Amino acid sequence: MTVSEVIYTFLEVLIAVSCCLGNMLVIFALWTSKSIQLPTFCLIVSLAVADFLVGCVAIPLAVVVDGRVETSFYGCLFISCMVILLTLVSVLSLVAIAVDRYLRVYIPLRYKRTVTRKHSCFAPMFGWYNHETLSNSVNSTIVCQFISVIPMSYLVYFSFFLCTLTPLLIMTVLYGFVFCTIRGNLREKPGRSAQKQSQNYLRKEKQLAGSLALVLVLFALSWLPLHIMNCIAYFGGLNVVPEVAFYVGILLSHIRTAYLKIWRRYIARGEENQASHTSHTTDNNLSSISVTKNE
């Protein structure tokens, strides 16, 4: 192994260990607080579990598919698809959390009846493989490299355009709508006590949405560089992007799982306090509306 390979492997191991420990703390904290009974926290735990698996499974496999071992074509393809699958689970968890925030603001009175723990389950999918490598490896083994079994067209069109860029745009629109709705409601002058309590609820929702939007920004900053380099390599040629830049992009995409430590510090504590007041706030909103109608 060269010096650069040793440094890359060491950094990957360091990221994997910190990722596993950080996400274990998130899962343990939410589990002991019994907040997991709420749909929102089911999605947060789902994201934490997905990123934990990225740290203990996907990152080690990403090192393996860097030309370190020789396997059959389908063995290498299976390992590569596991890396992709765990990545897509994280993306879909972020989308589900954004939809949950949107529904909580758009239909606050029907949120508890509409969003339940049963609605917090979904499954990702992944796509095609490199037919040229398969035809050249019949009845033989190959040096397992991610790019040799997963075509660049898949990484650009499916992984980036469909499974990363599209969810990113959807989440941006949803959070934008949440901020605009909350901002418009907060501009109304509070009159009655119930309306004041409703505004306090909206302020808490705005703070939570802001923290979640920060997670979205970190997600975009960690993944876009690698996908942009894949697009440049696909449309302009592999020699256009230096190999070192690809390794930096891979490391940056793996570092994204560390943001759950920030999540635990800035979101989980505030959300635990907010959860105890949610039912009272919703009841107050309902009573406020009924009083207004009667008048």
TrEMBL record:
Compositionally biased residues, Polar residues: 275-295
Any single GO CC term annotated in Swiss-Prot or TrEMBL for this entry: synapse
SUPFAM superfamilies reported for this sequence: Family A G protein-coupled receptor-like
Stored Pfam families: 7tm_1
Segments traversing the membrane: 6-31, 43-65, 77-103, 168-186, 207-226, 232-255
Domain G-protein coupled receptors family 1 profile: 22-264
Subcellular location, principal: membrane
Keyword line: Cell membrane, Disulfide bond, G-protein coupled receptor, Glycoprotein, Membrane, Receptor, Transducer, Transmembrane, Transmembrane helix
Membrane association type: Multi-pass membrane protein
Domain of life of the organism encoding this protein: Eukaryota
GO MF annotation, one: G protein-coupled adenosine receptor activity
Residue ranges, annotated region (Disordered): 274-295
Keyword Coiled coil: no
Family under the similarity heading: Belongs to the G-protein coupled receptor 1 family.
Annotated protein name in UniProt: Adenosine A3 receptor
